[in-house]
Design goal:
With about 220 residues, the chain is of the alpha/beta class. The protein has two domains: about 5-95 and about 185-215, D-Maltodextrin-Binding Protein, domain 2; about 100-185, Periplasmic binding protein-like II (D-Maltodextrin-Binding Protein, domain 2, 3-Layer(aba) Sandwich). Helix content is about 30%, strand content about 30%. The strands form two sheets. Strands 2-3-1-4-11-5 form a six-stranded mixed sheet. Strands 8-7-9-6-10 form a five-stranded mixed sheet. The longest helix is centred in the C-terminal third of the chain and has 19 residues, at about 200-215.
């Protein structure tokens, strides 16, 4: 891979990072240190002009949008929440698949809220507001960061908007998924200014990752 400029790639912690690293390796980009034990905030790679920074998922679009990172890998849920201003989304990596859904107590149905104001707990505030607005419903959105299932159980909210993988956690807490908002997977994103000023280097990373995705799927 021919990299003519210094490039920083922002990666998302957790499951996405675990599934990203094999794709990066297949593209010829490997961390120079073990990310599980390294305390470095910026990690060099096997390519001298490419470095990695490991962030919370909600921070990756922000770093890329403002040019602190040239590229990033983030879940589609975070991109829907933060918006697309300042970034391109050239590649679906097809990893960390899940669903962004509404959910509520299994004993009630979504139809019970159809004609009244609904209270919704979520960290996806913008996504939730847009979803209920499309349905013509009034939604009071309560921002939470964890244990969304607890909100309806404690009477804080009628429904939640959250990521659903297997649905096991919902079921164990007397909840059930209701409406699908979006199918989610991790995407490669690019700062628009970097695409112009470092085009050859950025494009080289995009093509290498695209080839890695295609090879994995073939």
């Amino acid at each position: 891979m021919n990299i003519d400029h210094d490039i920083t790639i922002a990666l998302t912690k957790g499951r996405i990072l675990k599934e990203t690293l094999p794709l990066l390796a297949a593209a010829g980009i490997e961390p120079a240190e073990d990310l599980q034990v390294s305390r470095k905030l910026i990690v060099p790679t096997s390519l001298s002009r490419v470095s990695l920074v490991i962030l919370r998922g909600s921070d990756v679009p922000t770093y890329v949008r403002h040019g602190a990172a040239d590229l990033g890998i983030a879940g589609k849920d975070m991109l829907l929440e933060s918006g697309s201003a300042g970034i391109y989304e050239p590649l679906d990596l097809g990893i960390a698949r899940c669903r962004l859904m509404t959910a509520g107590p299994a004993a009630t149905s979504s139809g019970d809220n159809a004609t009244r104001r609904v209270r919704v707990a979520t960290k996806f505030v913008n996504v939730a507001r847009a979803h209920y607005a499309r349905k013509g419903m009034h939604a009071d959105v309560i921002k939470l960061y964890g244990s969304m299932e607890l909100a309806p159980l404690m009477g804080l909210a009628d429904e939640i908007v959250d990521i659903v993988d297997t649905g096991k956690t919902l079921a164990e807490n007397g909840m059930a998924p209701r409406e699908l908002i979006a199918e989610v997977s991790s995407r490669l994103i690019v700062n628009k200014a970097s695409m112009r000023t470092r085009h050859s280097s950025v494009q080289a990373v995009i093509e290498a990752l695209s080839n890695a995705v295609n090879t994995r799927e073939s």
